Amino acid sequence: MEFDVGARLRELRMAAGMSQRDLADRAGVTHGLISMIERNRNSPSVASLRKILGGIPTTMSEFFDEEQAGRDRIFFAAGELTDLTSRIVPRGRGAAGRMAFRQVGDARAHDLQILHERYEAGADTGPTMLEHASHEGGVVISGEIEVTVGDQVRRLKAGEAYLFDSRIPHRFRNVGQEPCEVVSACTPPYL
Q: What is the SS3 assignment for 78?
């Protein structure tokens, strides 16, 4: 069964007692964007959805995990990671530019988000730099990723890593020709 992003956003917005305009104002996006997403006429980017959810407030993990089951689990098979991104990327768009973020367990319960990230060639978190009240770090497992933090830019290869204060504007881009995989951690959880 396919996840209904629009219905879930509408459900959370209404549960918070907000109109579409209220949420748009709080999230710093247009009312039209909220309306289009709720009617499933627009598939938001990861950055846009995260910005909108910040206005409710809720995390992407909570957005996609309606049951919030398994809070006390310790071990997870590869197929048991929570997929935070594939549900918002429309099918049939091809792999170019896609990102996939899979989370280990319940990030809120542990105040730590651990992600297995995959960036296809051309993937980019977007021209709007990300900022959030966290600290994050990661290790590149394969491929290459360009990481921008403030005015510093570095292209990292397998085995190299990053660690920074996430309140500094930042961006991730796969400028290579091969997919890139990263294992990252963020506290407190961001997505």
A: helix
Is the separation of the CB atoms in 136 and 57 below 8 Å?
A: no
Q: Is beta strand 135-142 parallel, antiparallel or unpaired with respect to 82-83?
A: unpaired
pTM of the model: 0.67
Phi, psi for 150 (deg, rounded to 5) = 65, -125
Domains of the chain, each with CATH number or no CATH: 5-58 (1.10.260.40), 78-187 (2.60.120.10)
pLDDT tens per residue across span 106-145 = 888 888 999 999 999 999 988 889 999 999 999 999 999 9
d(CA 143, CA 157): 6
DSSP-assigned beta bridge partners for residue 171: 148
